[in-house]
What we know:
Spore Coat Polysaccharide Biosynthesis Protein SpsA, Chain A; two-stranded antiparallel ribbon; 6 helices
Amino acid sequence: MAIALVLTGGRASRFGGADKTLVEIAGIPSRDRVLAACAGHRRILIGPETPGHPLPENVLRLREDPPYAGPVAGIACAQKHFTADDAVLLLGGDMPLISPTVLDSLLPVDRVPRMLVDRNGRRQFLCAAWPGQLLHEALHRLQPHAGASLKALYRTAEEIAGECELVPSESESADLDTPEDLLRVKQMLDTNT
């Protein structure tokens, strides 16, 4: 069992400022689809309270400080909840097509992070598995956390342990960065049903 950190605290500026993780896909919010995909793991949601959208049972909610300090600050706020021996899944709450099978393809993780990459070669920094020890060390070296980019976190990890392992994916790695992405994801679901 891994520790699954699901990040939902962004500003969604390319999505018109709406909480893209609460956008429903076939009647289920994207965030809840991601949480369901990682139900076999210890789940921690990092993001703001969402009135009217309760979390499933056994999901811990944390919030980066200050709010909107970025994904690295969000990951850092969860450090006391995973050990050096844990595998840690870093997941975006805006990836509604992710499945338990895809998450299993990222595990087990040994020395370097394993990250999904789409068919166009785009790396999904928030669909990856990390060794807990490496994540702790990279967070320790990358200071300050507020405003730090995910690319910087991965660069730090690569300086410590070597290049990340890329795991090819198809539609599972689709995320909701823009309204056009939402339409594309809905079309993918329609095609597959």
